[in-house]
Amino acid sequence: MTSSHAFRRFAFAYGTAFAAFYVVALKLDLALFTVYPSLGVVLLGTHHARDVVAPSLGFLAPAMYWYGWTATAALGALLFGFLTALLPERWTRRIWPGWLWAVPALAMMACVYLTLPWFRL
Amino acid sequence: MATALLIVHGLVAIALLGAISHQTLATWAPAHARPGSFFGRFRAVPSASFANAIVVLYAVSTLLGGILYLYFRVDIRPELERAGHWPALGLFDLKEHFISIGLALLPAYWVCWRHPRADEPVRTRVAVTSVLAFIVWWSFLIGHVVNNIRGFGS
Q1: Residue A35 with chain B: CB contacts under 8 Å
Q2: Which of B147, B148, B129, B153 is nearest to B26 (CA)?
Q3: Are A15 and A102 in contact, with CB atoms under 8 Å apart?
Q4: Cβ–Cβ gap B93/A118 under 8 Å
Q5: Residue A95 to residue A12: CA distance in whole angstroms
């Protein structure tokens, strides 16, 4: 019974925190790792091409950050979830359960805002 | 290999779309609908029974999409960039962001449906399911638009 309550606290905290951390990772470009699929290389951290002389090289070795942003948010949310699971039940009962859908909904709106530059090109 | 994966990804997505649409409509439809009516029959199916299937289908679909994204980034996206399909690429990026957020919601979604607490408001479950349904529909539609973009609207 206790473990199921702890898992509930973890699941609610993880889903909520992930959405918030994901927006932060996207805004600050905090990818845990960068994937270069054409080279089959994965580098720790966020790496951007610094080649200003021949920027077309970016087409030859495109970098992918989505996996890294997701991993960053997952790591932060895991820590937050585990900490919340350790809290006493009476503390977490006071938290509004609506955060579970409100935070992801707000995070999705923030993602739309951060993606707007694509539509101005 | 990529084509086979894309077809499987599409089939899994269709199954997921059907399951989550059914569950979402059942949660929104009036509980007092006439037994013989369309919504009455809809409500007769226990919505909670879809939860396990939705979690598995969402996870499998995300995994397949994550593998296909590698092919997309190398073979498809540079072509779309050269052709100036920036809005489509923006919509596709949104799809990726939404899918990540939805994936993280799955444990809580599962708890809401399979182990609901008596004092928990039903609207939390309805809202989480609706958010997931929106993500699945968005991903399905945008995935198809980008998949067919070179013949779409041209």
Answers
A1: 70
A2: B129
A3: no
A4: yes
A5: 10
As given in the structure block, the two tokens for residue A53 are: 């002389």
| B93 contacts A62? CB cut-off 8 A | no
| pLDDT one-digit tens code per residue, B97-132 | 999 999 999 999 999 998 888 777 788 999 999 999
Q: Which of B78, B101, B130 sits opposite A18 (nearest CB)?
A: B101
Tell me the residue type at B43.
R
Query: DSSP letter at A56?
Result: T
The size of the A-B interface in CB pairs under 8 A is 110
Please choose, from the candidates B45, B54, B34, the residue with its C-alpha nearest in 3D space to the C-alpha of residue B107. B54
Place of tokens 């606290």: A9
Say what the pTM is.
0.90
Phi, psi of A64 (to 5 degrees): -120, 130
The answer to whether the beta carbons of residues B145 and B81 sit under 8 Å apart is no
Taking any CB pair shorter than 8 Å as contact, residues of chain A touching chain B are 4, 7-8, 10-12, 14-16, 18-19, 22, 26, 35, 37-38, 59, 62, 64, 66-67, 69-70, 73-74, 77, 97-98, 100-101, 104-105, 107-108, 111-112, 115-119, 121
Q: Is the ipTM of this complex over 0.85?
A: yes
pLDDT tens digits, B5-53: 999 999 999 999 999 999 998 888 766 767 778 777 777 778 888 999 9
- Count helices and strands in chain A by DSSP H and E runs: 5, 2
